[in-house]
């Protein structure tokens, strides 16, 4: 006997954050996967993930982190603290950040007043050159992302200060592993034409 299951209808924040997480699976960085979705009036206007620019060989294809390899070479040649050298050599990273890739799909008029959904806290450069410059009004970050520690404390503080000064609100969106699994299973069942779900709630 089949037991009917209830599926809680997704809210807009959940839908757009799930899309950002899906975008992150396209990343070509060996360090982390980050996805971003730009939304205006409940309509997606841009999506992005972190990866090498078009025409540039990605670290995934190289088989190693480009800037870390440079750091190892620098240490071998001249000595020094490897972690300090790596931090210094981050500027040579091959990846374009997810939010910048999403913004590249839009004109300035499109992005004014939009909301950015992103899986990871944005770095100071993306905050300044991307988020503030393009008139984004709110940033929504995936609360459960296990790699939110990737910014240094100083970098995160710099991002927070810039966002606050620009009057851009920051909110964390809860989307647990269990809920993601539930959504994925529901989607798989929809493809299989399963019809025994009952929807609950949602706007």
Report on the structure:
The structure is a single chain. By secondary structure, this protein is an alpha/beta fold. The protein has 2 domains: 7-42 and 96-191, Cytidine Deaminase, domain 2, CATH 3.40.140.10; 59-94, no CATH class. Helix content is 41%, strand content 19%. It contains 9 helices and 9 strands. The protein has a 5-stranded mixed β-sheet. A two-stranded parallel ribbon has the order 1-9. Strands 4-5 form a two-stranded antiparallel ribbon. A hairpin with a 2-residue loop joins β2 and β3. The longest helix is centred in the last third of the chain and has 15 residues, at 177-191.
Mean pLDDT: 87
Summarize the main sheet.
5 strands, mixed
Write the H/E string, N to C: EHEEEHHHEHHEHEHEHE
User: Which strand-content bin applies to the residues?
Assistant: 15-25%
CATH superfamily placement of the largest domain: Cytidine Deaminase, domain 2
